[in-house]
UniProtKB/TrEMBL annotation:
NCBIfam families given in the database record: sigma70-ECF
Domain RNA polymerase sigma factor 70 region 4 type positions: 111-161
Protein name: RNA polymerase subunit sigma-70
Keyword Transcription set for record: yes
Organism: [Actinomadura] parvosata subsp. kistnae
Domain called RNA polymerase sigma-70 region: residue spans: 12-76
Length: 297
């Protein structure tokens, strides 16, 4: 077998894994496809039979491509004055195959994609490679151009940011998590009575003008009004997941992992007492977001 045929066989065997790595690093199916294709082009021009571990070599190539893309994306974001134009806030129609991307996002988790987007490029690469794909730090070090010890610190720092922590006792956290999940389940099902059951009678909803349609009031009070309003926007619930916001349970709305809204929740006596809907890009960028974990963790 010649070297190109040998490489093609290795690449076809590794393609799904390489694309999965690229997607978790980039959060975009289109960009993951581009990175995978670029990895093939680079590999096909550089491969020789002297390459020992071909899978590790291909992983290194696609990871370096993704790192360059993340760094380029970061520079573009720093240059923007209108944060509403950021890739993460682009409308869902900007992807070539939205159904494929939706499936990918669901498989990874919308909240995880949002939280990964808060990491630096090097942190994201180190975390994804080590924690999600078990790549050794010795290999990661060469990709991020750090020592193995520094690469390990990058992943550790990312891990702390991704998983976060809360000062709420485990039992209280579990109860609050159930309230949030009940709210989301009722919203997705169009269940008015289910929503009324988790909203306090005097609950108040506030929001900014980016988050709310022009005809909606910036402040609304009362469980029924807020439940009815929630059902008019029930499509959002299908792109919503629990998330930690500054250590407190909230909700993120992120179609295909693209951050759109964050709901800050006040919860007391197993009822939601307040909801603040944030859509302004500058405020979203300032939020400390992390995965909420499991109620029994």
């Amino acid at each position: 077998m010649d070297t190109q045929a040998e490489l093609a066989a290795h690449f076809d065997h590794s393609r799904k894994r390489l694309r999965n790595i690229a997607y978790r690093m980039l959060g975009s199916a289109d960009e993951a496809d581009d990175a995978t294709q670029e990895a093939w082009l680079r590999a096909s021009s550089a491969y020789t039979s002297a390459v020992g571990n071909v899978q590790a070599w291909l992983t290194t190539i696609v990871a370096r491509i993704c790192l360059d893309m993340l760094r380029s994306r970061q520079r573009r974001r720093e240059d923007y004055t209108d944060l509403g134009e950021l890739d993460q806030l682009a409308p869902p129609s900007d992807v070539a195959d939205p159904e494929d991307e939706a499936v990918l996002a669901d498989s990874v988790g919308l909240a995880l994609l949002v939280v990964l987007d808060t990491l630096t490029p090097a942190e994201r690469v180190a975390f994804v490679l080590h924690d999600l794909f078990a790549v050794p730090f010795g290999e990661i070090a060469g990709i991020v151009e750090r020592t193995p010890s520094a690469a390990k610190k990058l992943a550790s720092r990312a891990r702390q940011r991704v998983h976060g922590n809360t000062g709420v006792p485990p039992a209280d956290f579990a109860r609050r998590r159930k309230v949030v999940e009940a709210f989301l389940a009722a919203s997705r099902a169009g269940d008015l009575e289910g929503l009324m059951a988790v909203l306090a009678p005097d609950v108040v909803r506030r929001g900014d003008r980016v988050a709310l349609p022009a005809q909606e009031e910036l402040e609304v009070r009362g469980a029924r009004r807020i439940a009815e309003e929630t059902l008019t926007n029930s499509g959002r619930a299908h792109f919503a997941e629990p998330i930690l916001v500054g250590g407190e349970l909230g909700i993120v709305v992120a179609p295909r992992g693209r951050l759109r809204l964050v709901l800050l929740l006040g919860i007391d006596d197993d009822r939601i007492t307040s909801v603040e809907v944030i859509g302004e890009p500058e405020r979203l960028r300032e939020l400390d977001l992390a995965l909420p974990g499991h109620p029994d963790s």
